């Protein structure tokens, strides 16, 4: 791998916050990550202009401190056209066909390289993280949403339209809970953070968990409430997390059986708050794997970085601009 000195700004836009950081071309974060809350309403379109206004002071400070500053990397939670930066479908922000990459480029007059957050995270783990030696792996995030990206035969796998990887939107129950993608019963609606909170709320409302009722504020159960109760061995919370682990194991085993993957790298807010979930997935997944070889060789690993997507947004800038020369399909 050939690397030349340079800097970039990386921005990870999630359903509830934006994370910003400056990176050098060795993958080292310069200073601290800045977190900017995103005003999120499940019934309203997020204001892209307001978000650009919020990051402007950070971009201008980076211009003054780092040289050469060669571009901005964006990782966003949804389907992104990586060639144009168009936000094709961002369910949590209610964006459809928004030219967000162009908006950022026009605002700051810097090259912009955009992609999905899960694609960025897979790229970071392959370039600088736990999957450095892996040729066949999936990145899997469990957080506000659930999904991931694929790295096959030594390269990122984008698919025919460039949208490969959202295995959280495989249908589990077509009569199930409405999903942000516009359909019903996707795996995401059963295993992501909001689903965990919803299951916890149902348990409290049914009187099945006095502990979660005590931990919740004003009777409102959050994902963190359920995880706290799980870590105190609350039976209702244990049942919820076990069901989440089982469904994730079923979902991931389909990928492994189809693609013969050697590794799953797991991250996201739920994994960070409840790392025991990885062990519970390991416990369940072997029964769903088709081959003895998969049961023997499969590795489930925790993400290397606190925010792999942020690191991946930086990696995308350096790879696509030619600062880092390595054939990863970026």
TrEMBL record:
TM region(s), chain numbering: none
Q: Which Pfam families match?
A: ROK
Source superkingdom: Bacteria
What Gene3D superfamilies does its record include? 3.30.420.40
**What InterPro entries does the record point to?**
ATPase_NBD (IPR043129), ROK (IPR000600)
Family classification: Belongs to the ROK (NagC/XylR) family.
Supply the name of the protein. ROK family transcriptional regulator
Organism taxonomic ancestry: Bacteria, Bacillati, Chloroflexota, Anaerolineae, Anaerolineales
